[in-house]
Each structure stands twice: as C-alpha cells, then as structure tokens.
Amino acid sequence: MSSNNLFLKFKQHRQYFFISLLFVAIYFIGSALITPKITSVTENLVEDLIQGNLKSKENVVLFEFNQLNSYLIDAEKVIEYSAQTSAQELKDKLLFTSGLALENQNISNTFIRFLNADTDSFYSANTDALYAKEVNAYLNQKDVLKTKSTRDTIITKQNRVLYRKSCAVKLENGTSVTFGYDVDLLNFWDYFSEKYKGDGGYTVITNKNGICLLHPDTKYIGKKLQSYFETISIDKVLQSTIKINGYYVPRNDNILKTKAVSEFLDLEVLRYYDTIKINDTPLIVVVSFPLEIHLKETTQSIQRYFSWISFLAFATFMLILIVYRLQLKKEFVENLRVLEEKEQLIYANEKYQKENAVLQLNQLKKKMNPHFLFNSLNSLHVLIDLNPELSQQFVLKLADVYRYLLEERDGNLISVKKEITFLQHYVFLQEIRFNNSLNVSIIHNSDDKVLLNKIPFLSLETLVENAIKHNNITKQNPLFIEIRILNDKIEVLNNYMPRKQKVENSHRIGLTYLENTYLHYQIENFKTEILDGKFICTLPFIDLK
C-alpha cells in the first residue's frame, strides 16, 4: 500500500523531479563546456605572468652583473684619461678602484699590471706568489691590442669557480696597463639566491659559450650546459635580440621557449631564453617555470573555485526551487481549502435560494387561493343572472385554474406551453371580472419548439396579477398587458399607471420569488424596469443541461 502511495506521489510531482534532473544535466554540461575555456584563459594568464616574471628576473640579473662590471668600467676610464696624469698617480687611482672592488663581497681578488719593454710590475690584494704567477700566465695568453682589450674567463680551481674579468689598455708611451678582478661565483650565487627569493621559477645564467655562471644547483656552475641548448641553439638565442637606442630587445614578440625536464627539479618545466648584454659582453638568461606548479595547479585551483561557485549556485537554485515548491504546495492547500469553503457557501446559498423560492411559491399559492377565489365567486354571482351559459364556462375555467395550482410536481419549473395554457384560463376569469378594462395579448411568432423551454412556475400569472394589483384600472384608462414569446426569453409589458395609494400587505412576494428562482439557477438576465411609460419584465428561459 505504501509503495502505491509513493508511486502516486511520484506521478503527481514528477515534473519537479524531471526539472531537477534537467538542471543537474545543464550544470554538468555547462561545467564540461566552460572548463576548457577556463583552462585556456588560465594558461594565457599564467603565460603572461611568466613573461612578466621573466622580464623582472632579467632586470635583476642585468642590475647585479652591471654592478660587478662597474669596477672594470671605472678602471677603463681611469686608464683612458691617464695622459694628463703621472705614472704614480695612475697607479694610485687604480689601487683605489681595486680597493672599492674588494668591498664587494662577491669579488675575491684584484690585480694590476704595468708592462713595457723595461719593466713588468704586478700589484694584487693576494700576496701569494703562486697567484701572481698564475695571473701573469693568464694575461700572457693573449696579446694586448693596440688600443684596448677586455676578457671574461671562467676559471675552475679546487672548490672554487672564478669569473675573471680584465681590461688592458696600451698607452701612447707603449706601456700596457691591465686591471682585473676575480668574482667568486659560488659566493655570488649564495648572495643572489638569498636576496632574490621567490616562487617564480629558477634562473640560470650562462656566457656566450654556454658555460654556467649561476645555477640553483651549484655543481653546474662553471660547466657547460649542453642539455639546455639541444632544442634551441646558442646562436639562435644570441641572435634573438637587436640593439635599439643602446638597449637590447627581442627581434619579435615571440620569446624563445621550450619544454624540457629539469635536471634540478626532475620535473617538466617551461624554459624561456633571452639575451642581456653587460657592456659588450652577451649573457644568456634561462628561466625555468615548473608546469605542474605554475600552470596545472593554478588551473586546477581556478577550476576548483569555479566548481565550488557553480555547486553553490546550483545548490542555492535547488534550495529556492524546494522552498518555492513548498510555498506553492502551501498556497495550493490554502486555495483548496478556500475553494472548498466557497463551494460550500455556494451550495448553502443555492440551497437557501431554492428553499426560499419554494417557500415564497407556497406563500404565493396560499395568498392567491382565498383572494382569487373570493374575487372569482363575486364575479360568478353577478354572471349567473346575466349570462348563464358564460357562467358555466367560468366555472370550468376556474376548476382548471385550481387543478393547475393543486397539481403535484417536482421542482418549481414548468414548460412555456403549460404556463401559457394556464395563463389563458386565468386571463379569461380576470377579463370577465374587469370587462373591457383589461386587455391581455399573447404574441408568439417563434418556432413551436420554444414552447418546450422552462420558466418558473406561475411566473406569467404572477406578473399579470402584479400588473392588476399595482395599476389604476378604469374604463377610461384600461390596462394593456402584452406577453411576447421570443427565441431565448419572454417579455411581459404593461402600461404603467400606478395607484396613488399603495396596496396594503404588498411585500413583493411574487417578484422576489422569481428573482430567487433565477439566482438559484445562476441566471442573471432576469430584470424589471420602467421604460417609456411601460413596466417591462424579462423572463429568460432556464436550461437544465
């Protein structure tokens, strides 16, 4: 039994179930369609951020290497303007520049050399004779040009990797002046990584030969990074920039990039390649961004947020739908209760109207019987002596009238034909009573089927009697009553000649009876009116279908 009730409830509310399923399907379809779009937009946003991060790292590298190179530039200027100074003054200025360079924690040693045909003077912060011998050997590997020569070399010794920078200038007197210093790349990486912390990937710097200067895994510093340039060659990277107004910028908007497996993170990374130049020395900047971290996690986070937002929106909608459904059900129950009460009131009202109409009909009969009988007997008394034959007809008509009144019937409706037949008997008696002062005519030009329609019992007699009772009837001013039988109604008209004194005990029982009868059958076309000196009453036909 309970399963049957459950099935019936499901059938009654299945439209809401299907609506819910539809919205669930829309939710998942929408999520499936929007997720690729979110991924695509996220990838573009992340790539824009990566490129911005790349430029930021390039600027950092450019700044730090320019700082390291600034002492070399200062020494070159001192040497270039040495023509106005003595040899001792030139030596003092270079030693001062050397002292400034040593203030930088990343510079381990400095050296100065004066070489001409007669003398070879060497000055260094490192007093070790082996160091002096090694530097001289390094400087002798390459002859000084006629004007100026610069060298950047990576030297690996024991547990140290040195980035040696030097410049040599030949003076007009034939003396070659060389200034240089060693940058400890391992110390430099510790300084660089500590100062520029962040989660925007990791940076690798190489020289134009692909030898590593900076790397988060220090074991690669000082070594050639062959794997970095397998897909994109060093020459291609070096040619990717051009010099415009003293600045090196990409030749086009497409920055060089490739996917690779990082030997440092052991993850798939996206590598961006670019070139910066320190003075005239090019350096290659390679920034690696882990795809798993910077792309997939970001995309998954956005998708997760979108899923939560979509789920909350869906849950909110479903909650609203449920609340609306409960409210609708509550309103439906309330409306059903009001409708039932209204139907009960209508039923009670109809019952009251019917009972009231029957009561008024009975009152009408009781009122009519003695009053009509008294008037009819008086008329018969006069008529017996004057016209015995007519008096016999009078008695027969009077008998027919009372037989009609006393006849048992269901309800209070009668056919038009029977009501007209009874009215003719009734009018015959009243015309004898009023002689020529009363004229009643029945006009029927419609189909005979109209006579089968229903009207209230005694409706025509009531209107004729009402006209006789309330109008002043004389030989000079006779009463004319006209009964018109139309296709959908009957109209009863009489000339309006109201009595000056109101009839005693007139309580409008007849008209009230007719009005309540039509109300009971919910017909609103019954009406009475006075128009153009005539009292008009409209009796609509009553259809019981």
TrEMBL record:
- Give UniProt keywords alphabetically: Kinase, Membrane, Transferase, Transmembrane, Transmembrane helix
InterPro entries to which the protein is assigned, alphabetical? Bact_2-comp_sensor_kinase, Sig_transdc_His_kin_internal
- GO terms assigned for molecular function: kinase activity
Ranges that cross the membrane: 16-34, 305-324
Q: Which CDD domains match?
A: PDC2_HK_sensor
The Signal transduction histidine kinase internal region domain sits at 360-438
Q: What is this protein called?
A: Histidine kinase
At the highest ranks, the source species' classification is: Bacteria, Pseudomonadati, Bacteroidota, Flavobacteriia, Flavobacteriales
